[in-house]
């Protein structure tokens, strides 16, 4: 936001719609989870959209969050000490978090762009990414998730079925309902559709 002037007209309308998507209650839940997952060392943000953005902006808290979901010795993101102060280094740190989140299983459509966080363009997208990461952690249930499992919804999982050969052969004899049914109807006695063309001279 540093180099951006005020927006006008349609740009302002679009930005205000994006800002309305930000959820204060979700922010509270996400902060609680991040602190529970990473420990009190990550601190707490000031309440509100701007506080949440400033807290996550340098990418260190996000990197610690994704690292905490992996076992010791296989952390995907290297966290510099001291935290980066140069803008491009901070953006690089956020990009490393995004790559690690994608590798963890967050789908591309749930991942925010670096500028969404860094310039405050769409903090709601940042919330969606962290929410998706939490949902995946709860779903995987590999012992690395810390916090209340009720904070996130479990993702749908595959339910694999094993059919025997006899069951598969039996299924070939059944006409599935998706094939449709004519319920005994036939075309007997049908004529062409509509009336023939009337030519009046």
In short:
This protein has 201 residues and is mainly alpha-helical. It has helices at 9-20, 24-38, 49-56, 60-67, 87-104, 114-118, 123-140, 165-172.
Could you characterize what this model shows?
This protein is an all-alpha fold. The chain is built from 8 helices and no strands. The chain has helices at 9-20, 24-38, 49-56, 60-67, 87-104, 114-118, 123-140, 165-172. The longest helix has 18 residues, at 87-104. The radius of gyration is 27 Å and the shape is flat. The N and C termini lie far apart (77 Å).
Largest sheet data: none
| Radius of gyration from CA coordinates | 27 Å
Task: Please state roughly what percent of the residues sit in beta strands, choosing from under 5%, 5-15%, 15-25%, 25-35%, 35-45% or over 45%.
Answer: under 5%
Q: Structural class, please?
A: mainly alpha
**How far apart are the first and last residues' alpha carbons, in Å?**
77 Å
Find the count of extended strands (DSSP E, 2+ residues).
Answer: 0
Helix content: 40-55%
Q: Unreliable stretches, pLDDT < 50, 5 or more residues?
A: none
Oligomer: single chain
Number of helices: 8
Globular, elongated, flat, extended or rod-shaped: what is the shape?
Answer: flat
Order of helices and strands: HHHHHHHH
- Can you give the mean pLDDT? 82
Topology overview:
Elements: H1 9-20, H2 24-38, H3 49-56, H4 60-67, H5 87-104, H6 114-118, H7 123-140, H8 165-172
Helix pairs in contact: 2-7, 4-5
Main attributes?
flat; mainly alpha; 46% helix; 0% strand; 201 residues
């Amino acid at each position: 936001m540093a180099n951006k002037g005020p927006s006008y007209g349609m740009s302002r309308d679009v930005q205000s719609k994006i800002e309305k998507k930000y959820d204060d209650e979700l922010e509270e839940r996400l902060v609680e989870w991040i602190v529970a997952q990473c420990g009190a060392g990550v601190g707490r943000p000031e309440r509100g959209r701007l506080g949440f953005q400033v807290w996550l902006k340098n990418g260190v808290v996000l990197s610690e969050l994704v690292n905490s979901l992996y076992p010791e010795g296989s952390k995907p993101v290297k966290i510099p000490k001291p935290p980066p102060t140069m803008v491009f280094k901070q953006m690089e740190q956020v990009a490393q978090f995004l790559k690690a989140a994608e590798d963890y299983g967050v789908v591309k459509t749930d991942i925010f762009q670096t500028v969404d966080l860094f310039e405050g363009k769409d903090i709601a997208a940042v919330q969606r990414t962290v929410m998706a990461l939490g949902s995946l952690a709860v779903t995987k249930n590999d012992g690395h998730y810390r916090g209340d499992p009720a904070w996130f919804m479990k993702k749908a999982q595959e339910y694999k079925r094993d059919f025997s050969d006899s069951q598969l052969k039996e299924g070939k004899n059944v006409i599935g309902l998706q094939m449709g049914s004519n319920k005994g109807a036939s075309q007997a006695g049908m004529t062409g559709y509509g009336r023939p063309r009337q030519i009046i001279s």
